[in-house]
Design brief:
Organism: Aromatoleum bremense
Number of domains: 4
Order of helices and strands: HHHHHHHHHHEHHEHHEHHEHEHHEHEHEH
Helix content: 40-55%
Protein name: Fe-S oxidoreductase
Number of helices: 22
InterPro entries: Cys_rich_dom (IPR004017)
Largest sheet: 4 strands, parallel
Keywords: 4Fe-4S, Iron, Iron-sulfur, Metal-binding, Repeat
Radius of gyration: 22 Å
Distance between the termini: 55 Å
Number of strands: 8
Pfam families: CCG
Length: about 450
């Protein structure tokens, strides 16, 4: 195949045409599903990534013809429901992504199907509720209510009731809610002297994310402590709402747009002022870096925010390469079993967390680069719990067998999922679950 046909070109993604009426037309959607499913059936390289592809291949193999034309069109939705838009198939596996003439973008096709389903109001009230992360967080993180919610999440009777009411699996360990929100308690140093030879942006703004703000504010405080130790000026955005990833995964583009309108003005103002914007949850960084620019390709402020958005460890490694990061580590970290989440992998910045932690003397980092199977709200749902644990089983096994001192993942939800999987699998492992930012703060002796 010639370079003109795309085999030697880097993968590229087309903007999502979600404002066009044709995008929601079911007949063209069904035709495209059949076309792409036929290509996937003939390739099958992605069979081990998630449950969407095994579901597809089983439908084909059990069909009348052994090909996609033997699958009932209504069964295509079974494949759509198994995709949680991690993007790994596009970024790491598929040889037919654009600019290849076959133009396969499996995640964006699944997104289109989810959007059609959402527009037809064929989503559960449960799913609409779970994607309102700000509303849930603002209520559940009220001090007295937080204690009540946390106690209920540990109570078998209450969890059974929650499963009946909302379909949240009673076996899933849920993250706690913090009675003191990160944005209300963080203390940042907004001014430090400029260093000679400063090339990396010398000041940052923190986009705390719903999870850090309402569930684990300690992660944000660890980030703030590391920034202060490195004398990097830091501020918070004036206003912050959910990044929109949960709404995107539901196919709710209008919900994504509403959240974009809340977030982008304040973040674009920071970007214009020269701030690097750090989001300590990979899904949120990915939303601003890649997803919003594809949804709003003509929006200049969106593009400006995308260029200013960084994963914290991506930023720290850049600072270190400029000779501007403190490396006065005082505490070894021992053996760290580190899981790199899918939404970190598809940012295409490399394993910056591993690279940073390996700078700490007396530290061994064993990286597991495979989907853990949780993905936001997908893994908490009763209909997906067993599948999420099965997908994560190779990760659980690998991280346990290296006998680490701690297990860690940039995605705190994935880390909790991995910890549960290791324990439920019967492994005799006492390793501590620690976020990489907490590890870095610990290494500095802060």
């Amino acid at each position: 195949m010639s370079k003109r046909e795309g085999s030697l070109d880097a993968p590229t993604r087309h903007p999502v045409a979600w404002r066009e009426a044709e995008y929601y037309a079911e007949a063209p959607l069904q035709d495209e599903l059949e076309r792409v499913f036929g290509i996937c059936h003939g390739c099958r390289r992605c069979v081990n990534l998630c449950n969407a592809f095994p579901t597809l291949f089983d439908l084909v193999d059990e069909g009348k013809t052994g090909e996609v034309d033997g699958v009932e069109k209504r069964d295509f939705w079974k494949v759509v429901d198994q995709c949680y838009l991690c993007d790994v198939c596009f970024m790491t596996k598929c040889p037919y992504v654009p600019p290849h003439p076959w133009n396969v973008d499996f995640p964006h096709l699944m997104l289109r199907a989810k959007a059609v389903k959402f527009r037809k109001r064929e989503v559960r009230l449960r799913d609409r509720i779970l994607t309102n992360t700000d509303a849930i967080g603002k209520l559940a993180a009220i001090p007295v209510i937080a204690q009540t919610v946390n106690a209920a999440n540990r109570n078998g009777v209450a969890r059974a009731a929650l499963q009946t009411a909302l379909g949240v699996d009673k076996r899933r360990e849920l993250p706690p809610y913090a009675p003191a929100r990160f944005r209300r308690t963080v203390q940042l140093q907004a001014q430090w002297p400029v260093r000679d030879g400063e090339r990396t942006s010398g000041k940052v703004a923190i986009f705390s994310t719903c999870y850090v703000n309402y569930n684990e504010p300690g992660i944000g405080h660890d980030l703030a402590a590391v920034l202060a130790h490195n004398r990097i000026p830091a501020v918070m955005a004036k206003h912050e709402a959910c990044c929109g990833m949960p709404k995107l995964e539901l196919g709710d583009f209008s919900g994504v747009e509403r959240l974009k309108e809340q977030n982008i003005p304040a973040l674009a103002e920071l970007a214009a002022a020269g701030y690097a914007i750090l989001a300590p949850v990979p899904s949120c960084a990915l939303m601003f870096k890649q997803e919003l620019p594809l949804l709003f390709p003509d929006d200049a402020p969106v593009r400006a925010v995308a260029q200013a958005m960084f994963d914290p460890f991506e930023y720290f490694v850049l600072r270190n390469r400029d000779g501007l990061l403190e490396t006065d580590f005082k505490q070894p970290l021992g053996k760290v079993a580190y899981h790199i989440p899918c939404h970190s992998r598809v940012q295409n910045v490399g394993q910056k967390t591993r690279e940073m932690l390996q700078l700490v003397p007396g530290t061994e980092v064993v990286t597991v680069e495979r989907c853990a199977g949780h993905d936001g709200t997908w893994g908490v749902k009763q209909e997906h719990f067993e599948q999420s644990m099965r997908i994560g089983r190779p990760v659980f096994r690998r991280m346990a067998e290296v006998r680490p001192d701690c297990i860690s993942s940039d995605c705190p939800i994935a880390a909790r999922h991995i910890q549960q999987g290791i324990r439920d699998g019967g492994a005799d492992l006492q390793a501590e679950k620690v976020h990489p930012l907490t590890l870095l703060r610990r290494a500095y002796g802060l």
